[in-house]
Amino acid sequence: MTACDNPQVNTGARLGRAPRPVVQLLRYPGLDGTIVLENADEVLSALNALMTGWTPEIVTTGLQDDAPDPPHHVSRIRAQNARYDLHSPWLDKPLRGLMAASAACGVVADISQAFCNQYRGCLGLHCGAVRINGHLVVLTGPARAGKSTLISRLTAEPDMTVFCDDILPVMEDGLAFGLGLAPRLRLPLPAGVSAAFRAHVDTYMGPADRRYGYLCGPNVAPHGTRAPVSAFIVLARGPDAPAQLHRMEPTEAVQHLVRQNISAPGEGTEHFDQVTRMAESLLCLKMVYSDLEDAVDLLRRAFGADVLPAPGVTVASALPAEIEAVVHPPASLTQAYRRSPQVAVRAVQDDLFLWHATEYSYFHLNTVARAIWTLLEDPITGTEIAATLSEVFPDADPARIAADVAALLGAFETEFLIQPDG
Asked: Which of 152, 267, 325, 328 has the highest CB neighbour number within 10 Å of its CB?
């Protein structure tokens, strides 16, 4: 598949007609487990459209809605009132009322997690990856660093091959494995993107909802494409900053790679040792940029030769501290907040992440963040959260606690994980 059809027309139930009591069991080659779709033809169309070279075996059954899940099910989608509910073994509760593209996104997340977990020694890196002139370049960064937009833009480069924009399995032999999943682009496009990129998006936009759309360009690597990783780049966006590469020490790269790994840990230090070997063998860089086309041009020049980085491309020694830091505006402590309805806790072994089904974002929960998220079970003000934490930690400075709460609530609000109450 080099492009995908837009499955916006609902081929499932029509208004005024009861949905067919049909369950479809999807079994993807090489994936242990089953995807269960109940009256979800529209979600199946979306999955087929966004996958390249990975076609499931489909078994249609007459199971009823209350039938038990088949053994080793990966995720289950149920149609409810023209929307869809996602049931996942990695979520603490079902996500309800999703549009078809968002429901497909949930299935893709479960498929990616299951694939990485089932192979011993597999690292599941939360990143984008593109092959440029035979060099597979891994791109990651903090939220709002523009990773998915940049990867989507690279689908317009016919001589490059996009491996992923979210999860890259790196197998035990060190080769990256393309799952064949189209990148997901935040909508609407930023105001400053080029007319050529807008035309590309119009041509190759596939399953979409109001916030995101899968960009099924012609250069997405088919499922099963493998390649060694050549470089690891952490992205940072700065105001009016020309695209520039900066050197990154392998020790810092290890820290980033460990944080980005979503697969089940190996025995002892197995995964840490894998990450360390990877970082020591790669060209590790940071890239600051503000203009999308400027960033694409720099990547093309930096990886356009056999020697990396290419001769003539300058690599600065350090990234400026004002660009390095990612600071979210602090929240108002007097404002009451509540959890966004389409956010669930996603468990990856002993780590917990907040996962937003429609914003496509992960947020790692440390000990304090877990406590604050627990307190947000009911609407609560930042002042009340700070007062509760001050009781739990009586030796801590109350002013510092209040500042930390405002900062974390600000990060939650920026990532659409919480919203003002009332």
From this structure: 152
Each residue of 18-59: pLDDT tens digit?
A: 545 689 999 999 999 999 999 999 999 999 999 999 999 999
pLDDT for position 63: 58
For strands 226-237 and 336-339, give the pairing: unpaired
CATH number at residue 225: 3.90.228
Beta bridge partners of 26: 35, 58
Range of the domain at 78: 23-118
Q: Residues near 113 by Cβ (< 8 Å), separated by ≥ 6?
A: 90, 124, 167, 262, 263, 348
Distance in angstroms (rounded) separating the CA atoms of residues 209 and 99? 7
Question: Domain check: are 382 and 400 in the same one?
Answer: yes
Rounded alpha-carbon distances, angstroms, from residue 146 to 153, 247, 249: 10, 20, 23
Tell me: do 40 and 151 sit in the same domain: no
Number of domains, the chain: 3
Tokens at 297, concatenated: 């041009």
3-state helix, strand, coil in the chain (%, to 5): 30, 30, 40
Q: Cα(270)–Cα(318) distance, rounded to whole angstroms? A: 30
Q: How confident is the model at residue 348 (pLDDT cuts 50, 70, 90)?
A: low
Structure tokens at 327: 């600071």
- As a dihedral over the C-alpha atoms of residue 199, residue 1, residue 36, residue 260, rounded to 10 degrees, the angle is -70
Tally Cβ neighbours within 10 Å of residue 167. Answer: 23
Q: Could you tell me whether strands 23-27 and 34-38 are parallel, antiparallel, or unpaired per DSSP bridges?
A: antiparallel
Same domain, 209 and 304: yes
